[in-house]
Fold this sequence. Notes:
heterotetramer, B: 637 residues, 3-stranded mixed sheet, 25 helices, 4% strand, D: 551 residues, 23 helices, NAD (chain C), ND/Mrp_TM (chain C), membrane (chain C)
Amino acid sequence: MTLAHYLVLAAMLFTIGAVGVLVRRNAIVVFMCVELMLNSVNLTLVTFARATGTVDGQIMAFFVMVVAAAEVVVGLAIIMSIYRTRRSASVDDANLLKY
Amino acid sequence: MDTVPADGLLSASWLLIALPLAGAAVLLLGGRRTDRWGHLLGTATVAIAFVIALACAFSLDDRQVAVHLFTFIDTGSLEVDAGLLFDPLSAVFALLITGVGALIHVYSIGYMAHDPRRRRFFAYLNLFVAAMLLLVLGDNYVALYVGWEGVGLASYLLIAFWHERPAAATAAKKAFIMNRVGDVGLALAIFVMFAQLGTVTYEGVFGSVGLLAGGTVTAIGLLLLLGACGKSGQFPLQAWLPDAMEGPTPVSALIHAATMVTAGVYLIARSAPIYDLTETARTVVLVVGAVTLMIGAIAGCAYDDIKKVLAYSTVSQIGYMFLAVGLGPVGYAAAIAHLLTHGFFKAGLFLGAGSVMHAMDDQVDMRRFGGLARKLPITFVTFGLGYLALIGFPFLSGYWTKDAIIEAALDRGGVSGWVLGGVAVLGAGLTAFYMTRLMLMTFFGRARWAPSAPGRPAPHPHESPSVMTVPMVVLSVGSVAAGFLLVQVFPLDEWLAPVFGEPHEAEHVIAPAVVATVVTAVMVLGVLAAWLFVGRREVPVVAPERVSVVTRAARKALYADAINESLFMRPGQWLTRALVWVDNRGVDGAVNGLAAGLGGSSSRLGRAQTGFVRTYAMGMLGGAVLVAGALLAVTAG
Amino acid sequence: MIEAPDLDYAALAPLLFLFGAACIGVLVEAFARREVRHPVQLAVALVGTVGGFLSAILLASTRELSGDGADVTAGDALAVDGAGIFLQATIAGLGALSILLFAERALDPARSSFVAAAAVPAGSPRDRELLTSERVQTEVYPLATFALGGMMLFVAANDLLVMFVALEVLSLPLYLMCGLARRRRLLSQEAAVKYFLLGAFASAFFLYGLALVYGATGSVRLSAVQEAVTDGGGDTLLVLGLALLIVGLMFKASVAPFHTWTPDVYQGAPTPVTAFMAACTKVAAFGAILRLLYVGFGTDEWTWRPLIYGIAIVSMIVGAVLGLTQTDLKRMLAYSSIAHAGFLLTGVLGFDATGDSPGLSATMFYLLVYGLTTIGAFAVLTMIRDGDGEATHLSSWAGLAQRSPVIAAVMTLFLLALAGIPLTSGFTGKFAVFRAAIDDGAWPLVVVALLTSAVAAFFYLRVVVLMYFSEPAPDGPTVGVPGLPTTIVLAVTAAATLVLGVVPGSVLDLAGQAANLVG
Amino acid sequence: MSDFPFLLLMIAVPAVGAAVVAALPRGRDLLAKQISLGVSLVVLLLAVLATVAFDAGGDRFQLTSSVSWIEDFGVSFALGVDGIALVMLLLIGVLVPVVIGASWDDEPVGTRSMTVFFAWILLLEALMVGVFAATDVFLFYVFFEAMLVPMYFLIGSFGGPRRQYAAVKFFLYSLVGGLIMLAAVIGLYVVSANQGEGSFAFEVLNAIDIDPDVQKLLFLGFFVAFAIKAPLVPFHTWLPDAGAEAPVGGAVLLVGVLDKVGTFGFLRYCLPLFPDASRDFAPYVLALAVAGVLYAALLAMGQSDMKRLVSYTSVAHFGFIALGIFVFTTEAATGAVLYMVNHGLATGLLFLVVGMLIARGGSRRISDYGGVAAQAPVLAGVFLVAGLASLALPGTNSFVSEFLVLVGSYPSRPVFTIVATVGIILAALYVLLMYQRTMHGPARGLMGGHDLATPDGGEPAGPAGDTGGATATATVTAAPATARRVPDLSRREIAVASPLVALIIVLGVYPQPLIDLIEPAVAATISDVGGDPGGAEPQADTDAARTEAGN
Lengths: 99, 637, 519, 551
C-alpha cells in the first residue's frame, strides 16, 4: 500500500460523489454525495499528512468535518422546508427558475 | 495684350453685376410690397446697366481692364479673386446681354401683365442678367463657373416659372441636370488647370498654357467643350433646350436664344489661347458644331410647336457658331458676330412668337394658327424681318454673318473643308425650309383657330400692346442692320483684335461671291421646297400619322430623349432601386441580421439554463475538467 | 509548550466588529422581546458593519500598509495589507447599505421583504395568514452579519484553510437568506436549494484543490505555496490543485462556466439579498481570487494567465449574450453580473510579477463601483411593485419615466453606469481594468470586452427605452414611496455612481495606494 | 482678454442652463424656452468673442486651460481650440438658437414635457462644445460618448413613430465605435507611458513616435469610431433611421454638428497622431469616401421619405469631406473643414424646412406633397435655397467648400476626384427631384385635400362651409378643409430660417474670413501627416513633348 493507493482511492471516492450529484434526484442523496466528496478530501488530507509527516493535514480534516456538520444543518433545513412545501425531495421538481 | 488696372468709369464696372443683383434681391426679399413697381425696378436696373456698359465700352480703347474686387478664396497655393476683366470680348457680351435684356424686360411688362407672380418673374430675370454678366466679365475660370451655374439656376427658375405645370417643372429639372453634366466638364477643366498650372485666372492660364504637354491641353479643351455643350445645347447634350420652351416666352427669347445658350461659344472663344494649341480639341468642336447644326435643322423641320421649331433653330444656329470657333483664329470673330446678330433676330422671333401666343390664348401648335398676318400686322412685319435675317436673305444680318462662317469653313480646304462647308450650306437650306414652313403655317393660309381647351371660346387674335411691340420693332431693326454694321461699318474682328489677334486675310478656296451665290441659291431652294410641301396645300389640323421614317425620326428629334432615357435614366432608376434594396437588405440587413443572430443565439444558449440542478452540476463538473485540462496543457506545453 | 499566536487586535478590529455583531445578534434573537427585536437587530447589524467599515478606514489611515508595512497576524493566518483592508472596508460599507435595504419597512404592505416564519410551508393556510401580518423575522440580520464577517475573513485569508472556513462562513448564511422571501416563496426556496447544493458541490472542489496543494507543497499557507511554486512550478499535483481552487472561487464569483446558479438564485432570492450577494459576495470572491493568484501563484503567472484569459472571454460573452433575451429584470441583472465578472477578470490579468502593475488597484476599484451601482439598481427594483410584490418583469416598467421621473432617472444612471458610459463610475472602472489589461499586452481581450459591453449595453438600453420611450400600461405597477433606509441607499449609491464617474481621482488614488498584497 | 475662460464658460453655461430648465416644474414651457434661447444666445456671443480673441496667426492651440482631473490616469481637463475647432464652435453657437427657435411650437409625443426637450438640447450643446474644445484625448472620449445620451433621449422621447428602434440603433452603433476607440485611446496612453510619462494630452501624444504597426492598430480603432460617427459607407445605415425619426431640431444638431465629430476626429486625431498609418490607409479611406458619394446619392434618389433622403445626402456629403481630409493637401483639407461648417448650415436649413413642411402636412412621404410652391412661396423659396446649398450651387457656401475639396484633391488623387465630381450631377438630381415632387406641379396628395381619407372618397368637404353640422362630422371634415390650404411660413419660422439663409449666401460670396481661421490649423495638421502644407505644386514644366505639337 503506497501513498498513491490512498490518493487514488480518495480520487475515486471524490468522483463517485461527483457523479452521484449528477445522477441522483433526491436532494438528500445528492447532499450525501457531496458529503462523500468532502470525506474523500479528508482521506486525501490525512494521506498527505502521513506522507509529509506533519499533523497539519489531520487537523484540517477535523476542520472539514466541523464545516461539513454545519453544512448539514443548513442544508437539511433548506431541504426540509422545500419538502414541506412541495411534498417532494426530488431536485428535478424544483424547476421553476430557468432560462 | 497686357491687362491694365481699371480707372475712371471702368472701375465701376462691377455696378453692371451689382445693379441687377440688387434688383433681384429687393424684389425677392421685398415680397408683395414690391408688387406694384417691381417690374419697373427690374427693367430699370438692366437699362441702367446697359447705359453703363455702353459707357464702359466707349472708354475701353482697345485695352483689357482688370477690376479687382476682393479675395474670394485664398488657401494653400490656390488663390481665386473676385475680379472682373473688361475687354472688347466681354464688352460685346455685356452690351448684348444688357441691351437685348433691357428690351425683353420691357416686353415682359406687357407679356406678364396678368400674371400674379410678375414681380418674381422680374426678380428672376434680373438674377439671370447679373449671373450672365458675371459669367462674361469674370477674370478667371472660377468666376466664370459661378456665373455659369448662376445662369443655370436662373434658367431653372424661369423655365419652371409656371411650376404648376408638370411639364414645366420637369423641363426645368432636365435643363439643370443636363447642364450639370456639362458643368462637371468645366469643373474638371478647372481642376486640371490648377493642378498643372497652379492658377485659374485667364491671364495666368493663357500665359503658361504653352508649357503644358499636348495631351493635357487637349484634355482641358475637351473638358471645356463638354461644359460648353451642356450650356449651349450642343450634341450630345442638346435635348434640354427644346423642352426649356415650357418657360414664358420672354425667357426663351433672352435665355434660350440670345444670351445664355451662347455662353458655350463665349467659353470656347475666351479660351482661344488653349484651343489654339490643340488641333484635336478644335476638331472635336468642329464635329460637334456640324452635327448639332444638322440635328437642329432636321428636327426643326418636323415640329409643329412654334417655340420648339425656334428652339431647334437656336440649336442649329449655335451649331454654326461652334463650327466657327472650331475653325480657330479665322472663325472666332465670325462666331461672335453671328452670335450677336443671332441674338437680335432670334430674340425678335421669340418675342414675335410670344405675341402670336398672346393672341392665340397661349397656344403653340402651328397647325391651329394660320392667316394671322392680317390680324397681327406689327408682329407679322417684325417677325418676317427676323425670319429673313435668319434664313440669310441677302444683305440682312444673317446673310453677312452666316456666310462668313460658311466661307471660313470652306476655306479650311481639303476634304474636311468641303464636308464642313457642305454641311453648313445644307443647313442653310434646311433653315430656309423650316422657317418658311413656320411662316406659312402661322401667318398665311386659312385660319385654323380652335379653342385652347374644351369649353373655352375660340381665340380672337389681336395685336399686342405697344409695350410689347416696341421691343419687337427695335429688335427687328437690329435683325436687319446688325450684320451689315458689324461686318462692314464697325468691323467686329478689328474690335476684337486685342483678344483674338489681328484679323488676317484668308486664302479663299472659293471666291466669296461664289459662296454667297450658292448659299443664296440653296436658301431659295429651301423656301421653294417649303412652299411646295406646306404652302400649296391645306395644313392638316392634326399632324398626319403616316409619314416617312425620316419625318418620324425628326419629330422625335432624332430620338435624343429616347437614347437618354434608355441609356441613363432607366438604368439609373434601376440602379437606384437595386441599391436601395442592397442598402436595406444588404448593408443594414447585415447589421440587423447580426442583432437577430445575437438574439437567436441568446435564446438558444438560454436553453442550456434548464433549471435543473443536476444539469448545472454537470456544467460545473465539465468546466472543472476543462479548467484542469487547460492548466495541465499549459504546464505540459 | 504551546506558544499563543500573536494577535494584532487593531488589525482584526473590522472582523471583530462583524463577528461580534453577529454573535450579539444571535443572542438578541434569543432573548429580546419580539416587538423590539427588529430595531435592536438592525442597530446591532448597523453598528457592526459601520463599525467594521470605520475601523478598516481608521486602520488604513493610521498604519503604513504598503511595502514593508504589510504584515500577517494570527499565526500567519490573516494578512494585514492594503488590498485586504480596502476590500474589507468595501465589503463592510456595501454590507451596511444592503442591511439598510433589509430594513426597509415602508414599501411592502406587509412591512418586510422577508418571510415571517420560514418554517411554515409555502401556500399553507398559516402561510397565507402570515403573509399579511406585520410580523417580521429578524434572523436575517445576524445571518447577514455572519456572512459579511466571512467575506471579510475571506479576503484577508493568508492561508487556504482559513479561506475555506471563511468560504463556508459566508456561504451558509447566504443559502438560508435566499430562501427567506416573503412573496413567491416557492421560487425563493428553490433558489436556496439550488444555491446550497451547487455551493456545497463547489466547496468540495475547492477543498479537494486545497488538499492537493497541501500534498504538493506540504503547506496551505500562501507564502509557502508561493515558495513551492517558485521552486518547482509545473508540478502536476500543484496545477491540479490550483485548477480546483479556481473552480471553487469562480463559482462564488459567478464566472462562466460556473455561473449557472446565478440567474436562478438572483431571481428567486429576496431582492435585498440579491443585492447583497451581487455586491458583497462578488467583492469577497474576487478578493480571494486576487490573493490566490497574485500571492500564491504570482510567480507562475503564465500557468494561469491563458486560462483566465479564456474564462474572461467566455464569461463576458455568456453574460452579455444571454442577457439579451431576458424579460425579468433581476435575471437580467444576474447575467449582467456574469458579464461584469468577465470584465473584472480582464483587470485581474493586468498583473505582472514585478508587482508594479495597475491590475490590482483597477480590479479593486471596479469591485467598489460595481458593488455600489448594483446595490442601487436592485434598490430601485424593490420599489416598483404591483399587487403581487415586486414587478420585475420588463413589461411592467413601460413608461415608468412618466409616472416617476426621479426613479426612472436614477435607474437610468445605474444602467448607464453598468453599460460603462462616461461620466458614470462604471466607465471609470472599465477604463481602469482595460488600461491594466492593455498595459500587459492583452489588447485582444480588451477588444472582445468592449464589443461584449456594446452587446450588453443593448439590454441595459432596452430598460431605458421602456421607461422613457414607451407609453405606460394602464394597469401598470406602482412606484412605492421608499422609507428612510432605501432613500439613504439610493442617495448614497446614485451619488457615488456619479461622483466616481466625474471626479474619481481620490478614490482611485486610494485604491492605488492600497494595491499591495502581503506575500 | 485671451485669459478669459471662454471655452469653460461655453461648456458650463449651457450645462447649468440645462439643469435649471430641467428643474422647472411641468407646464412652465414658455419660461423653459426663453431660458434656453437666452442661454444659447449667450453661448453664441461667447463663441463670437472667442473668435475675436483668437489670433489666427498665433499658436496652434489658443484659449487653453488645463486642470488635472484624474491624476491616476494622467488625465487633465484640458481645453483649447485651433482654427478648426473654433469654427465648429461657431457653428454650434449658430445652430443651437436656431434649433430652439425651430422647436418653439413643437408638440411633445404623448404626455411628455417639452421642458425636458430643451434641457436635453442645452446639455447636448455643452457636450458638443466640450468634444471640440478638448485637447486631452481622454476628455475628448468622455465628451464623445457622453454626447450620445442627450441625443439618444432626444430621438427616443421626441421622435417619430419608429423612434425606439432609431434611438437604440443610433446609440449602439455609436457605442460600438466609441468602445473600439476606447481600446485605442488606452493603447495610445500605454504607448506614451512606455516612452516616458503617460499622458493623454494631445500635444504630448503628437510629439511621440509610434511604431508603424502599432499605429495601424490604433488608427483603425479611432477610424472605426469616426467612420461610424461621420458616417462613411458602409457604416452609415444608422443615420437614415436616426435622421428620419429624430425630431427636426435633434436631426439638425445630429447631422449638423454631432456627425462632424467624426470628420473632426479624422483631422484632429487620426492624421496627426498616426501619420504613417494615415498614409497607408488613405487609398482605402478614399475609396470608401468616393464610393459613399455616389452610393449615398443614388440611395437618396430612391427614398420616399424626405428626412431619410436628407440623411442620405449627408452621407454623400461626408464622403466629400473625407475625400478632402485624406488627400493630405492644404486646399482640400481647408475645404473639408469649411465643408463641415457649410454642411451644418445647409443641411441644417434643409432639415428645418423639411420639418416645417412636415409640420404642415403631417407626413414625411414625398408623395404626400405636391404643388406647395404655389401656396407657400416663401416656404418653397427657403426650401430651394437649402436645396441649392445642398447641391453646392455657386453663390452658396457649399460651393466654396466642395470646390476647394475637389480642386485640392485633383492634383494628388485625380481618379478619385473625377469620380467624386460626377457626384455633383447626382446631387442636383436628388435635390431637384425632391423639390419638384413636393413643391412643383399641381396641388397633390395632402396638399390637394382630396386624397385625404374622407369617408366616401368622392366629395371633399367644402372649406369651412358646413360648420353648423354635428360636431362629429365637423371634426372629420375639418381636417381636409384645413389641409387644403398650406399656410406659408410664420414670422417665427422666417426668423429661424433667415439667419441660416443669410449665412449660406454670405459665406458663399465671402468665405475668406473663415478660411483665414481654418488654414493655419489645417496646414499644421497636413504637415504632421507629411503632406505639403504649402499646397499643390504646378507640374507644368515636366513635359516638353508639347513644343512641336503647338505649331
